[in-house]
Amino acid sequence: MRLGKTISLVAVAGVMSGCTSTGGVRQPSGPEMVAPEKALVLPPPGGPSIISVVERKRGNGVEQTISLFTSSSVPGQNFLKAQFLGASGANPGMGNAKFSMINESGIAREVARSAPGVPMATSATFLQNAYGPFGYASGRSRAGDTCIYAWQQIRSSAAANTQARNFGMIQLRLRLCDARATERQLLGIVYGYTITGTFDGLTWNPYGNPPPADAALGRTGEPIYPDEGGYRPSPMPIGYEPAPAAVRLPRKAPVRSAPSPQPAQGAAPLPAPIGPRVPLPSEAPQTSAAPDAAAAPLEQSARAIGATVPSPDCMGDAAMTAVCRR
User: Compositionally biased, Low complexity: which spans (predicted)?
Assistant: First the structure.
C-alpha cells in the first residue's frame, strides 16, 4: 500500500510540473553577434571599418573578436581581439578563460598563424602607446602586401596589486594586412585605437593607480608655453590611407633659334641681318629697264609693310626737286 501511494504521489508531481512548464525554446549560451557600436575596442577615425563583432561571455570576463575591413590577397581576415579577464563570478556557468601572461613561444605561434605564407619578423624596438608598451611583428607577402601582428597586455603593476585592488587584465591582439599601406601606416592603428570597455569596481581595474600631476605645475621657474611642439614628440598619424603620388611635370626643352643660312664656299661671310634691306634710288641705275633680281624681293617686302625710305639726296631743301617728287 505504501509503495502504491509513493508511486501515485510521484506521478501527480510529474503532472503538476508539466503543467507549470512554459515550453519556451532556449538557445544555449555561446558566441553571439553584437552591434559594432558595442565593440570593447574601436579603431581610430579613418582606420579600417568594423565589419562584425562576435562576443563570448566567460565566467571571469568577456572576449570579443572584432572583424575589420580587409583589402589584401593574404589569406585571413583583419581583426582586433579583446579579452577582459578578472571579473570573478561575472558570468557564472559560462566557464572561465585561461588567465595566462604573454610569453615568447605563445606569441611566436600566434604570429605564424596570423598571416599564412608571409615571413614575419618581430621588432626589437621598445614601443608604447597611450595604454602602455606593446610589441609587433611585420612582413611583406610575395604580392607586395604589408602585414603586421601586434600584441598588448594591460595590467597594473605588482605594487598596486598588494593593495587588494587592480587585479583585472586586458589582452589585445591586432592583425592587419593591406595591399597599399606601409608598415608605419599600419602601425599607426596600434597608436590610435580606443578601449571603451571597463570593469565594475576598483578591484578589477587593470590600469593601476592614476599617475600624479606633473611636478612642474605651479612651480616657479617652470614656464609652460602654448606651443608644445618644441619639447613634445608629434604623435603617429592616424589611419593608413596612402597619400597620392607626387606628380612631376616634364621639363621644358630650351628654345633654340633656327640656324642661319651658311654662305657659299669662297664667299665672304655676311653680317647678321637686322631687318629687311631696302635699296636706295641711287643704287639702281635709272636707265635699267629690269631691276636687279636680288633687290626685287626686298622692294616687294618693303611695299608689303608700307615702309617708304627716302634717299639721302632728298633731305632738307632738296626735297622740292623734281627728282625727289617722283
Answer: 257-269, 283-299
307: burial class by Cβ within 10 Å (0-12, 13-18, 19+)? exposed
pTM across the whole model = 0.60
What is the spatial distance between Cα 113 and Cα 8, in angstroms, rounded to a whole number?
62
C-alpha cell at 176: 592587419
CA distance linking residue 53 with residue 259, whole number of Å: 76
Helix (H, G, I), strand (E, B) or coil at 286: coil
Q: Which of 48, 91, 326 has the alpha carbon at shortest distance from 190? A: 48
Q: What is the DSSP letter of 231?
A: T
Please give the Cα distance from 67 to 44 (Å, whole number). 14
Pick from 29, 151, 148, 130: which is nearest to 83 by CA? 151
Q: Is 143 helix (H, G, I), strand (E, B) or coil?
A: coil
First to last CA, the chain: 166
Distance (Å, whole) CA 304 – CA 278: 12
Amino acid in position 153: Q
Query: Exposed e or buried b for every residue in 253-273, given b needs 16+ CB within 10 A?
Result: eeeeeeeeeeeeeeeeeeeee
The residue ranges of every structural domain in the chain are 30-204
Q: E strand or H helix at 146, and its extent? A: strand 146-155
Coil/strand/helix, residue 221: coil
Of 121, 108, 113, 117, the C-alpha closest to 143 is: 117
**pLDDT tens, position by position, for the chain (326 residues)?**
555 555 566 565 665 655 555 656 666 667 899 999 999 999 998 889 999 999 998 877 899 999 999 999 999 999 999 999 876 555 555 566 666 778 899 999 999 999 999 999 999 999 999 999 999 999 999 999 999 999 999 987 666 555 666 678 899 999 999 999 999 999 999 999 999 988 877 777 788 777 888 888 888 988 877 765 444 444 555 555 554 555 666 666 666 665 655 655 655 565 555 556 666 655 555 554 444 545 455 445 445 455 555 555 655 555 555 555 55
Q: In whole angstroms, give the CA distance from residue 137 to residue 111.
A: 7
